Amino acid sequence: MSEEDFVEREMSVESALSMGISYHQKGNLQKAEWLYRKILEKVPDNPDALHFLGVIAYQVKQPDVAIPLIKKAIKIRPNHAESHSNLGAALRDAGQLDASIASCRKALELRANFPEAQNNLGAALLRQDKLNRASAAFRTAIAQNPEYHAPHKNLANILHRQGRSTEAALSLEKAINLSPNDHESYCNMATILSELGQFQAAVDHAQKALNLAPTNVSAHNTMGLILKKVGILDDAEIAFRNAISIADGAGISHSNLGEILLSQGHQKEALASHKRALDIKLRVNNVKNYLRALHYQEGLSNEKLYRKCRKWTNKLVKSETITPMPPPLMKDSPERLRIGYLSSDLHNHPVAFNMLPVMENHNHDQFEIFIYYDSPISDTPDSSMHGTLTDSFQQYADHWRTVGAINDQQIAEKIRADRIHIMVYLASTFDNNRLLVPAYRPAPIQVSYHNCSSSTINQMDYWLTDSVIHPPLDTEELFSEDLVRMPQFYIYPPPINLPDPGPLPSKKNGYITFVSLNNPSKITGQVVETWGRILKAVPDARLLLKYRNFYKSKAVLKRLKERLEGMEIDPERLEYRTAMDDHPDHLANYLDADIALDPFPFTGATTTFQALWMGVPVVTLMGKRFISRMATDIIVHAGLEEPLGADNLDEYVRKAVALAENPTRLAELRSSLRERIAQSPLVDGPRYTRNLEKTYLELWDKRR
């Protein structure tokens, strides 16, 4: 309808409003807005036109425009429940959460049976991380109108954050059935299904989201994250690049792309992508991904690594305006020392393997163990380990706290409320762990454990290590904590139900097979060049590479093949395996290998232990920082430094070649390594835990 038509027909306000609402309901916001404004030209204080004009502003993501319009409507008509509810939604999107909650509650005072207001109330409470109250509001909305899809979707969000993924999926299924064109529900369902291991269904739901919203950045990111999880790296890269092409200003897309590039072994390009994400927005996950990528860069000095980590963690602490808590009042001699562990990795993860022997052997008469678990993931049983890891940790803890659904400050408050004496942060810079919780100072003593470099958090007191990783007279790595050197750092549970190493494959094959089962992100250009030198020196040798199914990636293969072909290495000498096998089948790949080659500067740890257990010696370059000496720590405590540890690249090549040319020595190692490891301190959980507990007691006494 043109303005002339409106004037000529002298349409009544009531008719114009009815027509405007009709356009509004059909999604034609432009025509609806035009009619509402025409009404206000005739009747400036028409509450319906003001209200609906405000709703349109809210719908097009302009809450600051919506709020004064709806407030004006309420001033004219103060008892209109719908206006108060919609004002609550606009205030929520503007970040005015307390005011939003007050408006929603006013709406509910005016109309008790009002599911939309309950949903808006729940959404505001959810923004405040008040999950129980938000959940109650969403459940009330569902009870009042089971056919209303939004509270089903929002309730699923809470259930997911609480680690109740199966229940979340059921709630989302209801939301999708009620609103089959809501792409957000499909995105959310795809994420949950991937966590439940239903990867094909997850991809299908992500594709449905893209079909409904092909230009939605979140849908492309969701698809990319799922494809990355199942190792389809090239398609994941395309998904993230699509997201960036739609909205270059979405920092999370650049960070996600950086993760893919790192997995493909493009270390420098990955770092640049993460830096781009930081330039767009200072987010905790963006910073963590950038810091993680730094550890894979060859040629980065210890000083530069520390300075960059320090710079970005300090920026985060300032941006979050974190104020450390006042020192708690604690007894000098408690009956039991309360030890807290915070981690998101207590599932099928290297940190969990390292921590299981500790949890199995803690002295509960002297120590009260609190575990704060920050993940929705719970393991399925693994026949090569001792049952289900997550369940085992829960069983060994005196107190198990699930904290994935709450923010950093709330976790810190929970730790403080539990009156923890020594708080231990496991790999806080990596994966989904909470980098900033220690900055709140929730415990009088705070310890960094299994972190691959300094946390650079001022409130972190100690960093656990040993004299191999950080030699007392030769430590070049920089750190903000005080180092605490234990007798040894690494401990592992001995795997079970694995085949014997068997004879040397080279006896049957007639040639040596080198192997690396490490993530391609660790295989830098210098690593490929060094391995090429070894292959040239042992002309008949082969190189076996596997990491999940990552070697299906054309980008991964192209990088390796081009570098090795440049060194005149026949690509037929490389074997790539791509099966997504379980843990025992994964380790069975070592049955076909004679010698393992450790990457650098980010060396293997769990991978090194597993290779030795399977009878395969691991040649490693002994670097000058934690991540460069993880494998060194293992071979030293296994008594294998002389044949396997190298101080420089030339020695690395020499030792690998020497082993390849000494079948007698290789056969002796093949037959003896498992027993050697089984008799070493590396699997002596009781001894290790007594030393760790002694360290905790010394740290507490030192505080006094």
Rg estimate, integer Å? 29 Å
Main beta-sheet annotation: 7 strands, parallel
CATH architecture of one domain: 3-Layer(aba) Sandwich
How many β-strands, per DSSP? 13
Span of the ends, CA to CA: 81 Å
Structural class, by secondary structure, is alpha/beta
CATH homologous superfamily caption of one domain: Glycogen Phosphorylase B
Strand content: 5-15%
Number of helices: 32
* The level-1 CATH class of one domain: Alpha Beta
Shape, per Cα inertia axes:
globular
Q: Give the neighbour order of strands across the main sheet.
A: 3-2-1-4-5-6-7
CATH third-level topology of one domain: Rossmann fold
Average of per-residue pLDDT values: 94
Residues in helix, %: 40-55%
Detail the poorly predicted runs.
none
Please describe what this structure looks like:
- This protein is of the alpha/beta class and 704 residues long.
- Among the domains are: 337-491 and 686-703, Rossmann fold (3-Layer(aba) Sandwich); 505-682, Glycogen Phosphorylase B (Rossmann fold, 3-Layer(aba) Sandwich), CATH 3.40.50.
- Helices cover 55% and strands 9% of the residues.
- The protein contains 32 helices and 13 strands.
- The strands form 2 sheets. Strands 3-2-1-4-5-6-7 form a 7-stranded parallel β-sheet, covered by helices on one side. It has a 6-stranded parallel β-sheet with strand order 10-9-8-11-12-13.
- Helix 27 links the parallel strand 11 and strand 12.
- The chain is globular.
- The chain starts with a helix and ends with a helix.
